[in-house]
Design a protein that fits this description.
802 residues, alpha/beta, Rossmann fold, 3 domains, 16% strand, binds the ligand CCc1ccc([C@H](C)CC(=O)N[C@@H]2O[C@H](CO)[C@@H](O)[C@H](O)[C@H]2O)cc1, pyridoxal phosphate, Glycg_phsphrylas
């Protein structure tokens, strides 16, 4: 296989010299007086130097060949740490470890010292990060465009069991993986008005900022190719106002700077309900406009005819957050490049693709026409006219329309301005056709397609789970890292007792490591032979952490009554942040922590059940928890989780799933086999039907002794003796406003959990099923997902010749 760089790997001594070089010449530190930070930075710069080769080569080849480019526009990139990922993809992990050891440094300590780049909320942001790495591995000439937030997703800590947020400040230390690109800067306007000049609309912005670029290379597996993540920072367009400063009006003097920086100051921490704030709309336009200006500048440096843009450029919108791209691309083509209306619309539509990641009505962005009209007056004009064109071209039912009830529906705008729209799992894409875009689907029956999500096996297996990865390499060779379908060859080993032993040993080693970390960081003693039952994801009612919490209480209650009944010991892990303003989710966090405090202090069940909720769940913590999981909790109300990606990561790391027929759970179960999956609960259709019975919760509770006991204990303050009525609201909602059918699914969930208990007591059967889960989940590689986008949406070939 030819790699663009095709260069030999540096030796231990060469890398050791490089690290010492950077320590001395880049950090101006002498090895004897260097902190862990210094060693991390020097090591990062040494690795970064190795990333430049494939990066330059990929960039050069793309220019030389005039290859079609892919641009991924996203308000979020949940990257995590980069040092170890870069080492793994460059095949330098052992080499660096040896080089550092020779200098008395421990690689794992240096890796731990790196802050997560938490530039995202959850699934959508992490998917974007996995896609960048997969595009670099598959060989797609790709750029990601986003915002260089000074503050990523908030830090979570618990005070009295309640979530408290503090600002995240990953940039308080220099970030070694970015290159400032001050030459790549664009003016972005806001407000003002648009006027007709010689029959042409011209926008006169009321305020402007400068978007300045920072580039981070993302190398693929074996350093054969690389993609670029370009993040924009806000800078003032006006000079520092010295005169005002000299007149002592310091704040006014600094105002332009402050205003500009607010655009890239902080990530909005909502992952379902749009904040609907003006600053958020400005952030979305800021990122999108800078990206499109940069894309057209690069395009025109290679090609002359803008009408051919769709032949050479594919732009993917990561949800509606960059949906202003439709009107903005048309504005640039018309107002700055004199293209006609119809041609500009056709060119834009042929270039754009839109991915929908949620069906939750409250998550669909709608901007008031007033706000859109005041912040982006020219775009409001263009949106109106796009809507009129669409109305003229299609006999539309009243429900269809971008502008309705004084709101701009960004979903409809993205749909109408894209040549392809996709959902993120087979079930979700069908539900998108039947619900959120039902009428538009009728008008454009071939526009919606499906691209089931995936995850990168480099970070989520080879990096996170070296124990399993080494076992796979020894058993089926290491080809799986580039082509995850190779896992299929593992299938026969499920029947091999010796292999099952080794597989179980790898899992147990990860569980022992996690138990040590839980002891060190939380002082909780957990048994590594207990079943590690893990639910890690953002806190949201539809994800039903509450159902898991209710089952935990019921299990504890039953264990207490018959502690010697041969219960399967369990450790329940929870991990996840709630949006700061999401009161109900924060109450669920409080209850889980109150339940954990009570159960973990109970001597009767101490050896049978523990509940662990480490604060500040993030990418790096996921990498620590997932390899140690036995049971993966994917228990959302059917029809609500668009796909899920944690479910894929846990399956690929040998966990069995307990889940509903929702999102990608459906495809996981189809591939791993129904008898290797703990299914429970209503289907998406079943949910709609059951909801029609307004007493569905009360009836279910009255039918379930277990659930009634649980609610009784909670309402009595069993878990909040210091405030017995703390959860009266929560219990009332469980009886009367159980929108996500926690009660209706409780008993079947309980049964499924007991089935998991029983299987866990027969390790041979458990491990055989776990091995089959790994062997049959190669489909969930984000490389396969990217190849789907390349074929179905972007029409882009790989730049790598195999
Ligand atoms: C504007 C507020 C906001 C911010 C983010 C979002 C995202 C769409 C929420 C999200 O992360 N969705 C998740 O996307 C994953 C990747 O496709 C899916 O696997 C998850 O099922 C979906 O919830 C919605 C609304």
């Amino acid at each position: 296989a030819s790699s663009v760089s095709g260069l030999a790997r540096p030796t231990v001594d060469a890398l050791r010299a490089k690290i010492l070089h950077h320590l001395e010449y880049t950090l101006a530190k002498d090895a004897g007086h260097s902190s862990r930070y210094d060693w991390r930075m020097a090591t990062s710069f040494a690795i970064r130097d190795e990333m430049l080769k494939p990066w330059f080569a990929a960039t050069r080849q793309t220019y030389d060949t005039g290859a079609k480019r892919v641009y991924y526009l996203s308000m979020e990139f949940l990257i995590g740490r980069l040092l170890e990922d870069a080492m793994i993809n460059l095949g330098l992990h052992e080499t660096i470890a040896a080089a550092l050891a020779a200098e008395g440094q421990t690689l794992s300590d240096i890796i731990e010292d790196e802050p997560d780049a938490a530039l995202g909320n959850g699934g959508l942001g992490r998917l974007a990060a996995c896609f960048l790495e997969s595009m670099a591995t598959v060989g797609v000439p790709a750029h990601g465009y986003g915002i260089r937030y000074e503050h990523g997703l908030f830090r979570q800590r618990f005070e009295g069991g309640q979530q408290v947020e503090t600002p995240e400040d990953w940039l308080s230390q220099p970030h070694p993986w970015e290159f400032a690109r001050p030459e790549a800067a664009y003016i972005v306007g806001f407000k003002g008005h648009s006027e007709l000049r010689r029959g042409k609309s011209v926008w006169v912005p009321g305020e402007t900022v400068k978007a300045s670029a920072y580039d981070t290379p993302v190398v693929g597996w074996q350093g054969k190719w690389a993609s670029t993540l370009r993040l924009w920072a806000g800078l003032p367009t006006t000079q520092f106002d010295l005169e005002r400063f000299n007149n002592g009006d310091y704040t006014a003097a600094a105002a332009p700077e402050a205003l500009a920086r607010t655009l890239s100051r902080v990530l909005y921490p909502d992952d379902t309900t749009p904040a609907g704030k003006e600053l958020r709309l400005k952030q979305e336009y800021f990122m999108t406009s800078a990206a499109l200006q940069d894309i057209l500048r690069r395009y025109q440096s290679q090609f002359s005819t803008l009408a051919d843009l769709p032949k050479h450029v594919a732009i993917q919108l990561n949800d509606t957050h960059p949906a202003i791209a439709g009107p903005e691309l048309m504005r640039l083509l018309m107002d700055q490049h004199d293209m006609g209306w119809d041609e500009a619309q056709t060119v834009a539509r042929a270039t754009l693709g839109y991915t929908n990641h949620t069906l939750l009505p409250e998550a669909l962005e709608r901007w008031s026409t007033y706000l859109m009209g005041s912040v982006l007056p020219r775009h409001m004009e263009i949106i109106q006219r796009i809507d009129e064109d669409h109305a003229k071209a299609h006999k539309r039912p009243p429900s269809v329309g971008i502008v309705q009830h004084n709101e701009v529906k960004m979903g409809d705008l993205a749909f109408i301005m894209s040549h392809k729209v996709n959902g993120v799992s087979a079930l979700h894409s069908e539900l998108v056709k039947e619900t959120v875009f039902h009428d538009l689907h009728k008008l454009h029956p071939d526009r919606i397609t499906n691209e089931t999500n995936g995850v990168t096996p480099r970070r989520w297996m080879r990096l996170s789970n070296p124990a399993l990865s080494t076992l796979l390499d020894e058993t089926i060779g290491e080809g799986w890292t580039r082509d995850l379908d190779h896992l299929k060859t593992l299938e026969p080993f499920a029947q091999d007792a010796a292999f099952r032993e080794k597989f179980a040993a790898a899992k147990r080693a990860n569980k022992v490591a996690l138990a040590g970390w839980v002891q060190d960081t939380m002082g909780i003693d957990i048994n590594p032979d207990a079943m590690f039952d893990i639910q890690i994801k953002r806190l949201h009612e539809y994800k039903r952490q509450l159902l898991n919490c209710f089952e935990t209480i019921a299990l504890w209650h039953n264990m207490r009554q018959t502690p010697d009944a041969g219960w399967t010991p369990r450790v329940k892990f929870f991990g996840g942040k709630s949006a700061p303003g999401y009161f109900v989710a924060k109450e669920i966090i409080h209850l889980i922590n109150d339940v954990a405090r009570t159960i973990n202090a109970d001597p009767v069940t101490g050896h049978l059940l523990k509940v662990v909720y480490p604060p500040n769940y993030n990418v790096s913590m996921a990498q620590r928890l997932i390899p140690a999981a036995d049971l993966s909790e994917q228990i959302s109300t059917a029809g609500k989780e668009a796909s899920g990606t944690g479910n894929m990561k846990l399956t690929l790391n040998g966990a069995l799933t307990i889940g509903t027929l929702d999102g990608a759970n459906v495809e996981i179960r189809d591939l791993v086999g129904a008898d290797n999956f703990f299914l429970f609960g209503l289907t998406a259709d079943g949910v709609e039907k059951r909801r029609k019975n307004i007493n569905h919760a009360r009836e279910a509770i009255e039918d379930s002794q277990n659930l009634r006991d649980v609610l009784q204990m909670i309402v009595e303050g069993r878990f909040s003796p210091e405030e017995p009525d703390r959860y009266h609201g929560l219990v009332d909602r469980a009886w009367h406003h159980d929108h996500y059918l926690v009660a209706a699914d409780f008993d079947s969930y309980w049964e499924a959990q007991r089935a998991a208990d029983a299987l866990y007591r027969t390790p041979q059967d458990w491990n055989r099923k776990a091995i089959l889960n790994v062997a049959r989940s190669g489909f969930f590689s984000s490389d396969r997902t990217i190849r789907g986008y390349m074929a179905d949406i972007w029409d882009v070939p790989s730049a790598l010749k195999d």
